[in-house]
Amino acid sequence: MEVAFLFPGQGSQEPGMLHDLTPGQGTEAVLREISGTLGFDVLSLDTAGALKSTIGVQLSLLASGVATARHLLSRSIRPSVVVGMSVGAFAAAVVADAISLSDATKLVRSRAEQMEGLYQAGYGMAAIIGLSESQISSIIEGVTTDSQPVFVSNLNAPRQIVVAGFVRAIEEVLARARALGARKTELLRVSVPSHCPLMESVAHSLDQQLQDMEVRDPKCIYISNIHARAVRTAKGVREDLANNIAHTVRWHEATEVAQQLGTQIYIEMPPGHVLSDLARDNLVGVAAHPVSSTNLEWLVAHVQH
Predict the structure, then answer these.
(1) Each residue's pLDDT tens digit, 61-88
(2) Which of 161, 188, 215 marks a domain boundary?
(3) Contacts of 93 (CB under 8 A, 6+ apart)
(4) What CATH number does residue 232 fall under?
């Protein structure tokens, strides 16, 4: 059975997530390498206080994703496809052996630091459930201005869409979405307007940093956030890692591409289960499982069988 590894993005974090990882030499090696690159213990980043910072969140997600995936690899579960949402793309690229863990750590730290410092107040993101991309784009056209911009940032499912930008503009978009029949609208606990042109300076910086790093052709198919296409070259991986922060994440289309490539089982790295829920709810005929300490052995036995 063809397997896809899914790597979550910001919003899935939870206190203690690194301390809950499956113990073993592989996990310890990942944590040790990341800590060595950072110059401090990465295990200090999964406290409730540290996870209030974009930096703590994104580095913890990188560590959790790579450590869990490498444990699965050690148990002979190998993906034919890797897909990472937003910062999860860096863990996906490491697992596909397109970039080293050390370089990914440097990039994620730089990315998070720049994101956190770019907009101090007044910006954010929100989720809208029950309207299509075209409906939300039409609403945005009537709301966005140069001084108070708002953009479509994540296409998580055909009718589960995230917007990003100036909070006052977002609130007007949500009000109009409710009037148009949206089932649910919610401001997210995110202070950074990710995946829109407001992050172009971060994308440019990451592109410059990647020019000085070795990026290789992935050993399995890497699916991009930006284009929702199968990527088989170092150039394609480099483009996606640099630029996904400033472009809409086409998540649903990415998972559809994985299915078209023959994926039957989607395995979501911890923490959380949002990505496996999305796959299960929106893709017909697939199995989707989040990895946790309670189901790991069952999952290994099930997938190997």
Answers:
(1) 999 999 999 999 999 999 999 999 999 9
(2) 188
(3) 82, 84, 99, 104, 218, 222, 237, 241
(4) 3.40.366.10
